[in-house]
Amino acid sequence: MKRHPIQKAHQSRHASGSGSARGNRASGTSDFFDRFGRAPLRGLPKYAQLREAMMAAIDSGYWTLGEKLPTEAELVRCTPFSLGTVQRALRSLVEEGFITRAQGSGTYVSDSRQRMEAPWHCRFLNDDGSGFLPVFPKLVVRKRVRQRGPWSAYIDPDAGEVIQIDRRLGIDDEFFVYSRLFMSAPRFGRLLNKSIKEIEGANLKTLIRRDFHLPITQIGQRISMARFPGDVCRAIKVPGGTLGTIMEGVAMAGTRINVYYQQLYIPPNDKRLIVSDSAAPWLAPAGATTMINE
C-alpha cells in the first residue's frame, strides 16, 4: 500500500525514537510536523501543506510572536518536503505578513500580523513602491441571502442560502473600496455568530483557514468597468453612477471547493493595485528610485 508522504515522515521519525530528536525543541524542529502536519485536502499543493502546518504551529503558540523559526535546512530534515517546497512555503508566509526574514539573521514570526495592512485583494502600493497602503475596514452588512445572484454559479448552488458580508475598506484615508463577499450558509454559518470586531478587522482568508481548516490555495480574478450601484456609491462617498473597476474573485481550497465569491468596487484613483499572487516583482527596495508616480 502506498503511504502518503506525511505518514512516511511520521513513521520514520517514530521509528528512530531517539532522545536527541525529542530534545531539540530549542531549534523548533523536533516534533513540529508530527504535531501539526495533517492529511491534506485533495489537490492541495505541497508548499501549501507546509504553510498550513506552520500556520497551525504559530496559531497554537508552538512558535510565539518574534520567535526565530527553523532554518530551511532544518525544515527539510523534519518534513517530507524538498528545499524548493520549503522556500516557496516561506515566501508565501512572508508575503502574507505572518513571518519576516532578515538577511544574515534568520526567519522570525512577525509580531505585527494582526494589522490588516495588505489584505489579499486590496494591495495598493504606496508612493515609493516599497510597501502597501494600510487598510481600515468597517463592517456594513452581515446577513443571510436566499435569492440567487452572480455568486450562485460558484458558491454551493444547492445550499439554498448564502452569507453576505459587506465591508467598506478605507485605503490609507485616501479613498474607499467596497467589498461584497458571499459564502455558503450551511458551511460557514458560524461566521454570523462572531462579534462585529472579529469580522470587521479580520483577514477573512486567515479566519477561514483557522476556524474551518480550509486553506485558500488559489484565487481566480477578473476585472470589468461598470457603474456602481447606488448603495455602494453612498457607502464609499462617491457620486451616484460613478464608473469604476469591479473586481470579481473566486477563492478555492484545493481544486474542488469554492470557498467564497467576492466583488470589489474600486473607484477611480491614482494608486497601483497588485493583483498577482506574488507581490515581490513589484516591490521596490526601500530608498530606491521608482517610476511609480511618473
Low-confidence stretches: 1-28, 289-294
Helix percent reads 25-40%
Mean pLDDT: 81
Please outline the major beta sheet.
6 strands, antiparallel
Percent of residues in beta strands: 25-35%
Question: In whole angstroms, how far apart are the ends?
Answer: 61 Å
Count of helical segments? 10
Q: Count every beta strand, where a strand is a DSSP E run of 2 or more residues.
A: 10
Shape: globular
**N-to-C order of helices and strands:** HHHHHHEEEEEEHHHEHEEE
Spatial sequence of strands, sheet with the most strands? 4-5-6-9-8-7
Structural class: alpha+beta
Radius of gyration: 21 Å
Spell out the key features of this protein.
294 residues; 6-stranded antiparallel sheet; two-stranded antiparallel ribbon; disordered N terminus; disordered C terminus
How would you sum up this structure, described in words?
28% of the residues are buried. The protein is globular. Strand 8 and strand 9 form a beta hairpin. It has 294 residues and is an alpha+beta fold. It has 10 helices and 10 strands.
Write the layout of secondary structure elements.
Blueprint: H1 5-16, H2 19-22, H3 32-36, H4 46-60, H5 72-78, H6 83-95, E1 99-102, E2 106-109, E3 123-124, E4 135-145, E5 162-171, E6 175-184, H7 185-188, H8 196-201, H9 204-212, E7 218-227, H10 230-236, E8 243-253, E9 257-266, E10 273-274
Antiparallel strand pairs: 1-2, 3-10, 4-5, 5-6, 6-9, 7-8, 8-9
Helix pairs in contact: 4-6
